């Protein structure tokens, strides 16, 4: 291969990267200030109309991202499967669980959900409020922001535990004034082979699930949601980095959504203080994770099966 022909793919990659970066930066600066400006008005008066307008602006920002995915990152093939029992709509209220492998996961969620589900929020740390623009946008758009205290701090001042729970309750209840999708990455961190080995995880493709966040959300919102949705994301050609995705270097992405039936005993339990309930809830989540692990294996086998001539 000549040096000239080698330069062409590199040049194409650089051009795509510059184009994507320029459009995303411009879109962020176009959509961001109105969200922040309208958010400031909420300091003086709460307004459902302002909330709805901000969500429309956020969805317009996502629309630009999705346009880039469809029109610039054309090399990526999507395999999306949705359970027949899952009736999604833009006015619904959903809790969602998902496996976590890369920062790309959130973009995949937004790509899928933009025209099918309400704006996806997820639990964030309160400390993010101090990140310019991003932290304030999370707060204004209704992302539950948690002030979590360490075990050492709670040991010194037990009242902090109740304060954390009350903050979580308020954050979740604020979502009830509008349609929402609340995402929970049960693994708590991104999957890597190193973390998997360190945990001695019993699952082939997943880290151990942390059930506390889901238990909290179900305790507060469980009887008010339309469905508990489980999203499974598979990258059959290897887990990509964020820059790889936006450079169009991810050949295939597979997404599966299924509805999780919530047993009656789950609602109304006290995960924090009832050891028996906590053990039963953790066992239930482990069973869901076992099913999910098997689903990932099935998806990988199907995607990597030799094509028939």
From TrEMBL:
InterPro entries: Plipid/glycerol_acylTrfase. Residues 94-236 form the Phospholipid/glycerol acyltransferase domain. SUPFAM superfamilies: Glycerol-3-phosphate (1)-acyltransferase. Coiled coil: none annotated. GO terms for molecular function: acyltransferase activity. It holds the Pfam family Acyltransferase. It comes from the Bacteria. SMART domains: PlsC (SM00563). Keywords: Acyltransferase, Transferase. NCBIfam families: PRK14014.1. This is Acyltransferase. It comes from Acinetobacter wanghuae.
């Amino acid at each position: 291969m000549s040096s000239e022909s080698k330069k062409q793919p590199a040049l194409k990659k650089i051009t795509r990267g510059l184009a994507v970066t320029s459009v995303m930066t411009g879109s962020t600066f176009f959509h961001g200030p109105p969200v922040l400006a309208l958010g400031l008005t909420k300091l003086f008066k709460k307004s459902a109309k302002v909330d709805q307008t901000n969500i429309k602006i956020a969805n317009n920002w996502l629309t630009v991202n999705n346009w880039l995915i469809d029109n610039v990152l054309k090399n990526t093939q999507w395999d999306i499967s949705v359970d027949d029992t899952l009736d999604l709509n833009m006015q619904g209220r959903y809790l969602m669980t998902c496996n976590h492998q890369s920062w790309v996961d959130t973009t995949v969620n937004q790509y899928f959900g933009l025209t099918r589900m309400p704006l996806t929020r997820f639990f964030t740390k309160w400390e993010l409020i101090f990140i310019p623009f991003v932290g304030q946008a999370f707060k204004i758009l209704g992302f539950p922001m948690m002030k979590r205290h360490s075990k050492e701090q709670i040991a010194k001042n037990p009242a902090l535990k109740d304060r954390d729970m009350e903050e979580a309750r308020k954050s979740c209840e604020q979502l009830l004034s509008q349609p929402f999708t609340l995402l929970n990455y049960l693994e708590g961190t991104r999957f890597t082979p190193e973390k998997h080995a360190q945990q001695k995880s019993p699952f082939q493709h997943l880290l151990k699930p942390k059930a506390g966040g889901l238990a909290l959300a179900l305790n507060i919102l469980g009887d008010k949601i339309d469905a508990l949705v489980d999203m499974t994301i598979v990258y059959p050609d290897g887990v990509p980095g964020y820059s790889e995705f936006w450079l169009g270097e991810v050949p295939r992405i597979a997404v599966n959504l299924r509805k999780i039936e919530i047993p009656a005993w789950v609602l109304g339990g006290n995960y924090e203080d009832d050891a028996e309930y906590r053990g039963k809830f953790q066992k239930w989540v482990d069973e869901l994770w076992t099913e999910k692990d098997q689903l990932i294996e099935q998806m990988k086998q199907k995607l990597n099966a030799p094509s028939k001539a």
